[in-house]
Each structure stands twice: as structure tokens, then as C-alpha cells.
Amino acid sequence: MTVPTNHNCPDDEVLQELAAGICLPELADQTMRHVARCTHCGPVLRRYVREFSNDVSPENAQIIKELRSSTPQWQRDLVRQVIPKRHRLPWLKLAPICVALGLIVVGMVQGPALLSEFRLHQAQKQAVAGFEERRTIEMRLTSEGYSPLRPFPIVLGSDSSHGLDEVPASLHDASGAANQNLRAPHADPRWLQVQGRILLWESTPSSLEKAEKDFEKAHAEGLDVPSLDIDLAVSYFERDSRSEHPNLQRTLNLLNQVLHNPRLTNQERATALYNLAIAYEKTQAWDLAATTWEDYLKLEPSGQWSEEARRRLKGAREKFPEKKQQGYSQPAFFLDQRAQQSLKPEDPEQYQQKAFSQWLPIAMADKS
């Protein structure tokens, strides 16, 4: 007999604590009796177990693997104790739930850390989901799904925050979790990255300034991951491109630096290339923009982000003659132009960007 979802179902926090292995034994026993017969709570607990499993470090996974509670026989015996024979469900249906109970054995040591990781992971996904619901900035975040650009209108002299009805619920939840966790002593700096992303979404002059400070503070507190550098570059771009005399050099420098990080994943590389191409467009370096879009499309040839990239690549090519696209890529073309004194005012900046982004890395690689 199954129990439909109703007011007797435990709160999500109880199920999360059960999955993390830090639920009090009496409450765990009571909750498991309910979960085993509830068509709502059973799938919810299994989902939390899967999400916790994704966040378990290799060291923790090995500890859990070596526990007696991880063996099928121990789990079968536990089911016989928790569920009376007349209410017992088939073993295969209860197997995922028993994994959660097995985690209780190491709850005192591993559980709080697992729960903290889960809640952080949940907030990270919620922050990205806000951009997927309404993409307010031109550049993209790592792991962000595509949505059309819908920026907030920029009102000169105004820095008002957006109404509650404009802010996605996922960002409300992520913001609340970030505020709560950042009040704790020795807070995980990844919460600063979450908070910074929420401020990026708001996209007001003051929120962008705060986002930049949060990302830089996360760096200062020891967070060293490529996604943070990408976020920081986005905050630079959003602030600097709105200034009276835009200078995107620090955005360009940081994104080029990110692309040489040996720990970069393919998804992070694609995001950095996408954003770098946009920065080149903003400086009207169409040659570099076109080359960077081409590099991006080699890495991500399909999908909605790629469709937008192809449109932008076509636009860059139309604004930059093919001959000059080829010429700027060659040091010999620069020497010829200089010898002929045919350099135009915008040419030195184009060659400087090419030298830093391509010629110098190739020369260093040849020497090594």
C-alpha cells in the first residue's frame, strides 16, 4: 500500500539530512517508514541521494565503499528491521533508499560536509537558472543554458534595483542561501561567487561593482577555479563597456589568460572563447572577433549558443574585409605595411592584440 503526498510528508530539509546521513536516528527511522510507502517522498529522497553522490569526493567515496553498510546483505538486513514484513516492498525498489541509510553510519564525520556541498551545488544551479530564465548580459556563464538576450533598459542617472516580480524565484532562493552562509565564520568563498553571479544578473552600476568585488574577494580567499576568472572578466566587461571612454583591456587580458589555464574544461574553454569574441567585437577588432568565433565553433559546433555565434561571425566578416582578416594574422603583413608607411590609425591596436593572443604564445611554444 502506498501513501499519497499530504501534510504528513516530511520537509525537504529532513529528506536532505537523511540523504546526507546526519538525520537523528529516531527521526531517520520514522522518515524511512514513511518514505517506503509514499509515492512522493520516495522519488524525492532518491533524487537527493543521486545529487549527494555526485558531490562526494573520491576520498569520501572510498570510505563509504569500505563500510559494511555498503554491502547488499547489510542493506537487506536493515530493510527487514525498518519495514515490517507485511509492508515490505520488493528489494530493488528500496535499494536506492538503503544507500541513504548507509550514509547515516558516517554521518557524524561526512554528513555535514555533504549537506553543505549539496546546498552550495543547489544554489550554484539556481544562480545559473536565473540567467536561463532571463539573460540580462551579453556574455555567458559557465554551464549556462541558452536564452535570448533580454537586458534591462539602461536609464541614465538611475541605479534602482528591479522589482520582486522581475527577479526569478531561483535567484531569490540562491540569494537567501548565499546571505545565510556568508554570515558564518570562515565561509566557503564559493558562496561569494554565487552572490557575485546574482549581482551580475541585476546588471545595475552598483550591483556590477559589488559583483566585481565579490569575485575578487573570492580570489583573495583562495578560490582558484577558471569559472571564477571567467565571471570576473564578465564583470570587468559589463562595467568597463558602460564607461564614458570604454577600455576593455583588462577583460581581454584576463580571458586570454584563462584560455592558457591547463585546468580548463572544454565547457569553460568554450565559454571563455565566446566571451572573448564578444569583447573583440565591442572594440571593433573584427579580425580577432572572427578568428575567435571560428575557434569557438570548432569546440561547440552545434546548439543555440553556436547558432548565435554563427550569426555574429557572419557579421564580423562583413565588417572586416577578407584580405585584412588574413593580413592581420601574419607578422609579415605588418612589416610590409610599416615599410610602406600604410598603417591606419586603428592598425597598431589590431596588431597588438594579435601579438599578445597568437604570435607570442606560438613563439614561446617553439622555444620550449
Q: Could you walk me through the main structural features you see in this protein, from its secondary elements to its overall organization?
A:
With 368 residues, the protein is mainly α. The chain has helices at residues 12-20, 25-35, 41-55, 58-66, 72-82, 91-104, 107-133, 169-182, 190-202, 205-220, 226-240, 249-258, 266-282, 286-299, 304-319, 322-328, 331-339, 347-367. Mean pLDDT is 79; it is low at 66-70, 87-97 and 103-110.
Task: Kindly summarize this structure in a few lines.
The chain has 368 residues and is mainly α. It has helices at residues 12-20, 25-35, 41-55, 58-66, 72-82, 91-104, 107-133, 169-182, 190-202, 205-220, 226-240, 249-258, 266-282, 286-299, 304-319, 322-328, 331-339, 347-367.
Overall geometric form: elongated
The Rg value, from CA coordinates, equals 26 Å
Order of helices and strands: HHHHHHHHHHHHHHHHHH
Per DSSP E runs of 2 or more residues, the count of β-strands stands at 0
Overall pLDDT metric: 79
Helix content: 55-70%
Classify the secondary structure makeup into a structural class.
mainly alpha
Largest sheet: none
Number of discrete helical segments: 18
Distance between the termini: 70 Å
Percent strand: under 5%
Pick out the low-confidence regions: 66-70, 87-97, 103-110
